[in-house]
Amino acid sequence: MKYLVSIGLETHVQLKTRTKMFCGCPLSAGSEPNTNVCPVCLGLPGALPRMNREAVRLTVVSGLMLGCRIPPRAEFDRKNYFYPDMSKNYQISEDAHPLCIGGGVEIRAGGAAGGRPKTVRLNHIHLEEDAAKINHYARHSGVDYNRCGTPLMEIVSEPDIASPDEALDYLQTLRRILVYAGVSDCNLEDGNMRADVNVSLRPEGAEKLGTKVEIKNMNTFKGIHAALEFEIARQAAVLDGGGRVVQETRRWDGELGETFSMRTKENAHDYRYFPEPDLLPVTLSEERVELWRKSLPELPGKKKARFREQFGLPEYDAGVLSAERALAEYFEAAVAAGAKPKAAANWIMGDVLRLLGAAGKEAADVASLSTLPPASLASLLALVESRTVNGPTAKALLEELFEKGGDPAAIVEERGLAQVSDAGAVEDFARKAIEANPKPVAEYKAGKKASLQFLVGQVMKLSRGKADPRLAAEVLAKAIAETADA
Q: What is the model's pTM?
């Protein structure tokens, strides 16, 4: 029997604030366990929460980026449960009245690059405090409350996703949008973006959704994709065998490549939600929301389309450059400084990203690249465009600029790096190369075109890398042809 797959994601995103959600404790990854804590985030008797305004703003900004409706009033609730990661035995969250409602994320159907556009609807986005982290060791376990109280945004999708590939596309697109908005680093390795995955199967043609199974706390894209593939196959096997899928929470074991049952699924009433008595409702005026709306950056998808239209970039180039906001801004600044768009795209995607990678940096780190600002790259590309320097010299100069900085034009002039474009000088180098390499000359005459490039390389050696390679190739071909005619 064929089955239709329905996947919904609850994506948890830690917000980029200086302090926790309801107290003044700093947020600092890598601190010693239980050093960034206070009576409020530890839930000690008599401690009262105080709302982080920046966390509210970042959540609303996220909603605006995703096309959500922002109600004028939102309320916090207590979600009651007993577990070591929440010392006060309840979590301050939002239930019936969240900050953001509706919205959607546009992906490609099937998750394929050429698929038709498809919108994954969002149910809502709510704001809450994160739980502590439980660390398991060889002989004991410990709870680190440093993370407890971190502002945590939960983005809840409708079950519109139809495959693991679409789920991956959804998460990657969502991550790009949130990073663009500056609301979170969305670094999965640090745990500030993770997801609970809900998946169900129903027979083809059936309208009612099947029984859903939740897979908790997935924090890698690869793991989410693999867990979904396994779980879909597992549920299909159960249904094919005449069995019944049980609503439950399962965990993913990456080493074994399987999901395992943890517990039967709780329902909302199990948490005994009730309004948080120590916090007033959040009220948002239309003027304030519009002010935040005006500050929104261009969405990655719109930027990609604009790069293709405005700069004539191919689909691939526009996609790479628009994937990271910092990279896109670097590219646009280089073009504004005079660089040709396609040349700037090639050098940024190739050599600049290569140098960043070799230095252990990410594409987003291009924003803090003080040694090679966009204007310096544009200046270097102008030297290449005017044929003042050749390609090899420019690449070597780029590496030096990346390491130490400097003015490309001044360095070329001081060191005499300008390429030799004088035909007479290049003809002299070409004559010497032809005389010293009779075998490649004969091979070229016999039709082996690659031999000409070898001879160009010899000219470059004789000129100490300064000859114009294109001129060298022209001069060599002409000189060899003349010797053949003779």
A: 0.82
